[in-house]
Design brief:
The complex is a heterotetramer of chains A (166), B (290), C (423) and D (337).
Chain A (H helix, E strand, L loop, with lengths): L4 E7 L2 E7 L5 H7 L18 E4 L2 E4 L12 E3 L1 H4 L5 H11 L9 H13 L6 H7 L11 H20 L4
Parallel strand pairs in A: 1-5
Antiparallel strand pairs in A: 1-2, 3-4, 3-5
Chain B lengths: L3 E4 L3 H11 L3 E4 L5 H6 L7 E4 L9 E4 L2 E5 L4 H5 L2 H6 L1 H8 L4 H4 L4 H7 L7 H6 L3 E6 L2 E6 L4 E3 L2 E2 L6 E7 L5 E6 L10 E9 L5 E9 L6 E2 L1 H7 L6 H14 L10 H19 L12
Parallel strand pairs in B: 1-3, 2-3
Antiparallel strand pairs in B: 4-5, 5-10, 6-7, 6-10, 8-9, 11-12, 12-13, 13-14
Chain C lengths: L15 H5 L15 E7 L5 E7 L1 H5 L3 E6 L7 E2 L6 E2 L5 E2 L5 E7 L2 H9 L2 E6 L6 H4 L13 E9 L2 H6 L3 E8 L12 E6 L5 E5 L4 H12 L6 E4 L16 H11 L3 E4 L2 H4 L4 E2 L2 E9 L5 E13 L5 H11 L8 E10 L5 E2 L6 H18 L4 H8 L16 H18 L8
Parallel strand pairs in C: 1-14, 12-13, 15-19, 17-18
Antiparallel strand pairs in C: 1-7, 2-6, 2-8, 3-7, 4-5, 9-18, 10-16, 11-12, 11-14, 16-17
Helix pairs in contact in C: 9-10, 10-11
Classes of the chains: A alpha+beta (166), B alpha+beta (290), C alpha+beta (423), D alpha+beta (337).
């Protein structure tokens, strides 16, 4: 490993400065500093278990250079699932609709789900199915994950409609 | 020496860094290709020049009839661009099936063509539009036709110190893209193909440009197939002729993903599908592909 | 409904909220103070004698605290009925997935770097990779044993008589491929020597007791000195049924006195067990009206270089090979064959997915050769309430026809758009 | 061109290892505060056994699910279990947990009887967390009271242990005859596919899966197991294949980029899942295991559907796009020839 450099970024709402090697990926930077909810299933960009929000967009942290995150904002599954409304509602619906079994792909699915819901996530099963197509799951067959995101989108839509937002 | 990672804070700064580090420099933006090669230990020590912060390279705009896309523009931006949906459906459709949504949030156009994989999904549309690559250097810039940009597997015509800053092309609404992988997401193309057609009033194809990926060391124009179609109507017999002709345009290999024979059959069938799609002809009117 | 009515309820998993917020602890998330990381050196050949293993350069590599080879393993053979699998390759490598040495270092990168510096001298032997070829025993995978390591026989009634009385014989060959479990969580194991002298191994496994039974023999320990903990498991599907990296981390801890952790890369995950590929021959004798009189089945299973669970899998496959049909005369001959290809092990379905593919495609072939609708042919031959299995066991098979008719009903109903509310 | 077709497959599969012992053990301790610790050897690898086992224990002891804490995954503290495999946990470990819970309940009721001055506990029942006399319901106490009385007064800790081992007979060496399993489960799946004759792509548009698992203890977990198994079956039938070098040996596609399992866009939007609930009286609350063989009928149902759609029968899995396309060409050539 080459000589490490300091990277200052915001993780789950908290300013932190961490040491990263130039060639290190964001996944390793996060896991080595205790954010172990970001999972490593392949480290080759093929499985999605390492998905995090980077500046509001869901990305695969294993193919994101750690040093490129200087001054950026990262949210992990632990962070988004505490976030009011979208994250918390999706977390509860993941449980309610049986969207997880072994739980290893679940953090990545949660972040991808939150990303979908934050970017005008319409309650449309085919759109949701496409949105999570970068997150592999071997246990659930994807159906109940789509159910959870779909029902969350519906509930959010009812709320915003209720508040006369639309 | 070990790796280094330097973030450029402007294009001139990036060019200066590229100049200084020459062959040791390696431009990185999304990182979805380079970080995988790094993990697989197929990327020797280098100086990463990070251009991810350069907002001036992230745009899609129309300038005197040309669509100009900044090299740092992500695939998800392309996928959500109404301009592309309307004026350059081939590139829009390619962006939709590129890898997966989360990779599309990071991967950039400049990165995709810079990586120069034979199966790069953004290449066939740019080739079919006969686009150009704007290449900047410390002391100026040059316009490189995209058909001269790819020189081999993973190799481009870029010289050390040069940076792709934009791709530009004359858009065409009568264009389309088709991809065949081994599954419907996160799939590296076994064959991808784009077509751009200038249709006359009477329905004949005044001009037609077809570009095919994953069937040669670089994406290629299917010149022989184009010749069969140019000036004629997209009828079944004409297309059948072009389907034979395309076999001479392509030199597919057998690899872990698919065999040469499979790529040849799919290439001709997808050529038929993409030409009909570009001409907005519903596919099953024209009978079965071969 | 009262909180005390707990069964028959759509209750979420008790850890569902923890899973959704990423707070479940898997093996890879566990960190001990001054822990070392391990990396393995795998074989370069599918079949070769090992002349020498030189770890000196690896031992001098930066950050390295210990290297183990077969010499460090108290008992270097393990397995279930067949003790044929080495913990680390000693005088021979049997497949390209065999590990020869394992390095423990301060960081994972240092361990991997050092592992590449291990020099192995081989005397290459011709590998036998095709099971049918291997059955000729021209090249022996395991010395002193035929490559046909098990022949499972099943005889019910008299197939000869059945074929003689048949109006029609249908023969068919079918085969299945090797597949990987692909649990999203790769294998992981940690070992720690606790102050009281107990060696505690934490590993992602479906069968901790099967593991500790093997590890006790390998490490020559008893249940007071060894303990296996199972953290949350990120999917197994049968791929975490057999010991692999656990003895390596245990021995490295014993050698260095420090906790050791090893997490398989996705590539190494493909080196663990795979589903056995089967080559199957089906021969069925029938009456013109579709009644099945006799079925003869032959299965060749490529076990890779060790038996592992190959024989148990092939037994369960043989018992179910004829399918859920009333067949008076059945004979099954199944051969488990050693090869130098990748090792077979348990995977979801344990041999029966292979034969289910075979007997259900064979059933369709038969129906079409008789000019019958495959649904009608099944309706005629499926188990009734008291089906007799190929083992002669009488089954309570009421559910066979219940699922059959219900599936047809749901298929028809969903085509008419009136989908059942339950789904 | 797109050709449509439908195919079916049936299967049967046992619960438990083949003709050899594979017991499961359980400990239960009822705490003085009326909660319980369920300690089992079987581990949850994602199929939901911790939840299912806790449900059985809670139902049997009249507790809420939240009052039962499950401890597994420690060879020193948990009783022996043969392991999570062979579709055995719900049926075998479930029976062990139910038997153990009955024992714990007996100890609890005995303590309650003594506290009430009854000569035996036969007339006592537990409902909604309370113990009372069946025919004089006014005479009641909470489970916590009985537990405290037993543990802290009588000095009788409420700890029960039991196990379950299926009664099977090994197979005879020569004939393979015997009684290797106690119970079996059954299933039928129907697949609808669309085959693109230009690329050989097979798209599973609908999958009907009807399975048998006796009484469903938790319908949501059962559905999840069937949906997951179906997708594993789709991978087995259409997408997955380890490619080994035929000369040198060694795997040529050891990555998730070149060994492709189904993504969310490769599975049918229309998955119709159902169970026929024929209770199994030997099972805990009538239940049997369901998870392991849910993938068994999927691949053959798809292969039969491909034949129905195109007349092409793929006899060597997987039915990759290339294999289907070449088989279509072969069929065309034969028909023209």
């Amino acid at each position: 490993m080459s000589e490490k450099v300091a990277v200052s970024l915001k993780i789950n709402g908290k300013e932190v400065t961490l040491l990263a090697a130039p060639e290190q990926n964001l996944l390793r930077l996060l896991r080595e500093n205790g954010y172990v909810e970001v999972k490593c299933g392949c480290e080759e960009g093929d499985c999605g278990t390492c998905t995090v929000l980077l500046d509001g967009l869901s990305v695969k942290s294993c193919v994101t250079p750690a040093c490129a995150c200087e001054g950026r904002e990262v949210w992990t599954a632990a962070g988004v699932s505490r976030q009011e409304r979208i994250g918390r509602l999706l977390r509860d619906n993941f449980a309610k609709y049986g969207a997880s079994q072994c739980g290893f792909c679940t953090p990545g699915m949660m972040v991808t789900g939150v990303n979908y819901l934050m970017n005008n996530g319409v309650p449309d099963r085919q759109a949701i199915r496409a949105a999570i197509s970068g997150n592999l799951c071997r246990c659930t067959g994807y159906k109940k994950i789509i159910d959870a995101i779909y029902h969350t989108a519906q509930e959010l839509r009812r709320e915003t409609a209720g508040e006369g937002m639309l | 020496m070990g790796y280094q990672f330097i973030t450029a804070d402007s294009v001139p700064h990036a060019l200066e860094l590229l100049e200084r580090y020459g062959r040791d420099a390696r431009v990185i933006c999304g990182g979805t290709d380079l970080m995988v090669r790094l993990h697989l230990k197929r990327l020797p020590e280098c100086v990463f020049i990070n251009i991810r912060n350069l907002e001036e390279l992230r745009y899609i705009r129309e300038e005197d009839g040309m669509v100009c896309i900044g090299a740092g523009t992500t695939l998800s931006t392309l996928e959500n661009s109404l301009l592309l949906l309307g004026k350059a459906p081939a590139l829009f459709q390619a962006a939709q099936v590129f890898a997966d949504p989360n990779v599309r949030h990071s991967a950039t156009v400049g990165g995709n063509i810079g990586n120069a994989s034979p199966s790069a999904d953004s290449a066939p549309p740019l080739l079919a539009f006969d686009g150009q690559v704007v290449v900047a250097r410390k002391d100026g810039r040059r316009l490189l036709p995209i058909r001269e940009f790819f020189t081999g597997v993973g190799r481009t015509a870029l010289e050390p110190g040069e940076l792709v800053t934009e791709v530009r092309f004359k858009p065409n609404p009568d264009s389309a893209f088709v991809k065949v992988g081994l599954r419907n997401a996160m799939a590296i193309s076994v064959v991808n193909i784009a077509a751009s057609v200038d249709l006359a009033q009477d329905g004949t194809m005044k001009d037609v440009r077809i570009a095919v990926g994953a069937v040669a060391p670089t994406p290629v124009r299917a010149v022989c197939a184009e010749n069969c179609l140019r000036g004629r109507r997209p009828e079944e017999a004409v297309i059948r002729q072009a389907m034979d002709a395309i076999q001479t345009d392509i030199k597919p290999i057998t690899d872990v993903r698919a065999s040469e024979r499979y790529r040849r059959i799919v290439a001709e069938n997808m050529m038929r599908r993409v030409v009909l799609k570009a001409c907005r002809i519903c596919e099953n009117e024209g009978g079965a592909g071969r | 409904m009262s909180e005390y009515q707990v069964l028959g309820v759509r209750t979420p998993r008790t850890d569902a909220l923890l899973e959704a917020s990423g707070q479940v602890v898997y093996g890879a998330d566990i960190v001990y103070p001054d822990m070392l990381y391990a990396a393995a050196r795998y074989s370069d050949y599918a079949h070769a004698r090992i002349l020498s293993v030189d770890v000196s350069e690896a031992e001098r590599s930066p950050g390295v605290r210990g290297v183990i080879t077969a010499k460090d393993v108290p008992v270097n053979r393990f397995g279930y009925k067949f003790q044929d699998q080495p913990v680390l390759a000693d005088y021979k490598v049997y497949c390209k997935q065999d590990a020869i040495a394992v390095v423990a270092a301060d960081t994972e990168a240092q361990a991997q770097l050092a592992a590449e510096k291990i020099r192995v001298e081989y005397e290459p032997l011709t590998p036998v990779l095709d099971p049918v070829e291997a059955m000729k025993d021209e090249v022996l995978v395991q010395e002193g044993s035929s490559n046909v390591v098990a022949h499972i026989k099943l005889r019910k009634g008299d197939v000869g008589a059945g074929f003689a009385a048949a109006d029609k014989i249908v023969e068919e060959e079918l085969s299945t491929q090797k597949v990987e479990h692909v649990p999203l969580e790769p294998h992981v194991a940690l070992s720690e020597l606790r102050p009281d002298g107990q060696l505690v191994i934490t590993t992602s496994t479906s069968r901790a007791f099967a593991y500790i039974t093997q590890l006790l023999k390998i490490l020559r320990m008893d249940m007071t000195r060894l303990r296996v903990l199972t953290p949350a498991v990120g999917g197994a599907f049968g791929g975490k049924n057999d010991v692999s990296l656990e003895p390596w981390v245990a021995l490295l801890t014993l050698k260095t006195g420090r906790p050791v952790k090893m997490v398989f890369s996705r590539k190494e995950e493909f080196f663990t067990t795979l589903r056995h590929p089967y080559r199957m021959k089906y021969k069925t004798g029938l009456k013109r009206d579709g009644a099945i009189l006799a079925r003869k089945i032959e299965i060749i299973s490529d076990s890779g270089p060790y038996v592992c669970l190959g024989k148990d899998t092939l037994t369960k496959a043989s018992v179910h090979a004829a399918g859920p049909y009333n067949i008076p005369n059945i004979s099954v001959d199944s051969y488990l064959v050693y090869t130098n290809s990748a090792l077979g092990g348990a995977m979801r379905g344990f041999g029966v997915p292979q034969v289910a593919f075979a007997h259900e495609v064979h059933t369709d072939t038969i129906a079409h050769e008789l000019g019958m609708d495959p649904v009608e042919f099944r309706r005629k031959n499926l188990f009734y309430d008291r089906g007799e299995a190929a083992t002669g066991q009488l089954l309570d098979s009421r559910a066979m026809r219940a699922t059959f008719e219900r599936a047809l009903e749901l298929e028809k109903k969903s085509n008419e758009g009136r989908e059942e509310p339950r789904a | 061109m797109i050709k449509k077709g439908t195919g079916m497959a049936c299967m049967f599969y046992p619960n438990g290892s083949t003709g050899k012992a594979n017991p499961a053990g359980a400990f239960i301790k009822i705490n003085h505060d009326g909660t319980a610790v369920l300690n089992i050897g079987a581990t949850d690898i994602g199929q939901g056994s911790n939840t299912c086992m806790a449900q059985i224990a809670a139902q049997e002891m009249g507790l809420k699910l939240s009052q039962v804490r499950v401890v597994t995954g420690d060879t020193e503290l948990t009783p022996y279990d043969a392991g999570t495999g062979a579709c055995r946990v719900t049926y075998i470990a479930g029976n062990a947990v139910q038997k153990t819970a009955r024992k714990a309940k007996r100890l609890l009721l005995d303590a309650a009887a003594r506290k009430m001055g009854l000569i035996h506990s036969g007339q006592l029942v537990i409902e909604e967390g309370e113990i009372f006399l069946r025919y004089w319901p006014a005479k009641r106490m909470t489970i916590a009271e009985a537990a405290t009385y037993s543990e802290r007064i009588l000095g009788q800790p409420i700890i029960a242990v039991d196990s379950y081992s299926p009664a099977t007979m090994p197979l005879e060496e020569e004939s393979g005859q015997g009684m290797p399993f106690e119970v079996s489960i059954y299933a039928t799946q129907i697949a609808e596919v669309e085959v693109d004759t230009d690329t050989g792509e097979v798209k599973v548009t609908k999958l009907v899966a009807v399975h048998d698992c006796g009484k469903m203890l938790n319908p949501m977990l059962v559905e999840g197991q069937i949906e997951g198994g179906v997708v594993t079956g789709i991978g087995y039938g259409l997408y997955e294949q380890i490619i080994e070098d035929p000369v040198e040996g060694g795997i040529r596609n050891p990555s998730l980029a070149t060994y492709q399992i189904p993504t969310s866009l490769d599975v049918p939007e229309d998955m119709v899942i159902d169970c026929v609930e024929i209770p199994e009286e030997k099972g805990p609350y009538g239940a049997k295991g369901v998870s392991e063989p849910t993938c068994n009928p999927t691949a053959p149902a798809i292969i039969n559907a491909i034949y129905n759609a195109t007349g092409v029968r793929i006899r060597d899995l997987p039915a990759t796009r290339e294999k289907v396309l070449f088989a279509l060409r072969e069929l065309e050539r034969k028909e023209e020839g």
